Design the sequence.
């Protein structure tokens, strides 16, 4: 039972403080994985991929995924409820005071400070994902050989996706399918 309470509390905190959308939850999840040893950075990268490719908000998908991984169906339900509870509370409060809240100078000033914070949190998450998914820092640390940090196939998929997304602006599912196909072809 204490595992479910811990899941609820951790995802409540994540839902409360991860401002800026689902990607802003990644630093919280990274800390959670390290603190509770529920998943590794590589597992986190896989969770992000699955959460991005399934319908719904990434933060909710991540909570459900982690909860299920840690404690099965009850964990998925509790983690998801923990993630959405702060939003529900805040939305109910804000709905009552929307006009005053929106025009309040202090609130506007607070959001001026929060916006760069969100960019910093997301940038931190991006660096963490790159170091665990594109650059294999752990392999380099273990071997001391700089070449172990690079897998040309992974870097090729990363660069190709980045360039195509900038030029073509296709739906992400096309990139997901293309990367999966390249991954399969590279493994043959």
Sequence:
């Amino acid at each position: 039972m204490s595992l479910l309470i811990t899941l609820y509390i951790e995802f409540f905190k994540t839902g409360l403080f991860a401002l800026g959308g689902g990607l802003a939850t990644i630093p919280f999840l990274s800390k959670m994985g390290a603190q509770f040893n529920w998943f590794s950075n590589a597992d986190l990268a896989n969770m992000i991929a699955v959460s991005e490719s399934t319908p719904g908000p990434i933060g909710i998908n991540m909570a459900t995924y982690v909860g299920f991984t840690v404690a099965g169906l009850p964990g998925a339900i509790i983690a998801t409820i923990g993630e959405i509870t702060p939003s529900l509370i805040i939305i109910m409060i804000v709905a009552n005071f929307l006009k005053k809240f929106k025009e309040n100078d202090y609130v506007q000033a607070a959001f001026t400070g929060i916006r760069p914070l969100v960019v910093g949190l997301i940038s931190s998450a991006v660096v963490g994902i790159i170091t665990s998914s594109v650059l294999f820092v752990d392999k380099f640390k273990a071997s001391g050989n700089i070449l172990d940090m690079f897998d040309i196939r992974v870097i090729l998929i990363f660069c190709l996706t980045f360039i195509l997304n900038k030029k073509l602006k296709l739906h992400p599912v096309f990139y997901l399918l293309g990367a999966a196909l390249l991954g399969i072809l590279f493994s043959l």
About this structure: The chain has a mean pLDDT of 86. The chain has nine helices and no strands. The CA atoms of residues 101 and 107 lie 7 Å apart. Residues 58-96 form the longest helix (39 residues).
